[in-house]
Specification:
The complex is a heterodimer of chains A (152) and B (117). Chain A is an alpha+beta fold and 152 residues long. Chain A is built from four helices and seven strands; from the N terminus they run H-E-H-H-E-E-E-E-E-E-H. Helix content of chain A is 26%, strand content 40%. In chain A, helix 2 (24-32) packs across helix 3. Chain A starts with a helix and ends with a helix. Chain B is built from five helices and two strands. Classes of the chains: A alpha+beta (152), B mainly alpha (117).
């Protein structure tokens, strides 16, 4: 069941790709080891990571609390897939800003001496799951033009 | 970030008819009657959708002319596009930090390795 949630139907998703000079294992472990993850994940340059809890198993949950200007910002979620070192899928919510749960998938592919990481964030546009390409992408494209005209 | 406004925009956009209406309005302003044409829907049915879009601030209905033209208001959709952009930037920065963290780890390990030797 967890798998179904992780690889849901084609919905507008955000994809970020990055090549790194580290092995797939090194990159993968940095997401799940609390000592590592707390150093960079959901951390901000000016914030202070005050709490990191990671229950690294399928169905396990995580909590990251970053203190930003005295305000605690909590990032929470559940691990849906853990397949070291290739694939990691987890849900993500930031209750302070939204009650929405989004889904983040990490794919790591070895490449030469390093590896390539592809991050897909689904559900960022939650209500548009059923939208077709013609639907919202077209609208946004046209809208960009519209905005340009307005600002000019 | 004003999430309530965003949620309103999201739910207004959740309906395919309403997205199609916006798509039509992106081409230019038009009357309710014209808007209703491509859809097999009564004028009151279309008006209901228009009300939702209007409440979300996505469209504006003119009062000046008798045919009360509908026009698109881009700001809320701009916010949606900013919202996505905000996430992209967030992940780009996160991956920068990850890379930096792993590099630091490597430097430390090298140092430790040298000391051992």
């Amino acid at each position: 069941m967890a798998n179904e949630r992780g690889s849901s139907s084609p919905s507008p998703a955000l994809t970020v790709t990055r090549k790194v000079d580290f092995t797939a294992e090194q990159v993968f472990d940095a997401w799940l080891d609390p000592k590592s993850a707390g150093k960079w994940l959901f951390a901000t340059p000016t914030g202070e990571m005050v709490r990191v809890e990671i229950d690294a198993r399928v169905g396990g949950r995580y909590t990251f609390v970053d203190r930003r200007n005295g305000v605690d910002v909590e990032h929470i979620g559940e691990y849906l897939e853990i397949n070291r070192p290739r694939r990691l899928v987890f849900t993500l919510a930031v209750p302070k800003y939204s009650t929405l749960y989004t889904t983040v998938s990490i794919e790591i592919v070895p490449q030469g001496t390093g590896s390539q990481l592809t991050l897909t964030h689904q559900g960022v546009l939650p209500e548009w799951r059923e939208a077709t390409q013609a639907g919202w992408t077209g609208i946004l494209d046209r809208l960009d033009q519209e905005m340009t005209t307005i600002t000019m | 970030m004003i999430v309530d406004d965003l949620s309103m925009t999201f739910s207004a956009l959740a309906d395919p008819t309403r997205r199609a209406i916006l798509g039509r309005l992106a081409l230019g302003e038009t009357s309710v009657t014209e808007l209703a044409k491509p859809f097999e829907m009564s004028l009151p049915g279309i008006s209901k959708h228009l009300k939702v879009l209007q409440k979300a601030g996505l469209i504006q209905q003119g009062r000046e002319a008798q045919w009360r033209p509908c026009r698109l208001k881009a700001e809320p959709l701009k916010e949606v596009s900013d919202w996505v952009e905000h996430y992209r930037q967030f992940w780009e920065e996160s991956l920068d930090r990850l890379d930096e963290y792993l590099k630091e780890l490597q430097r430390k390990e090298k140092k430790r390795g040298k000391r051992k030797r």
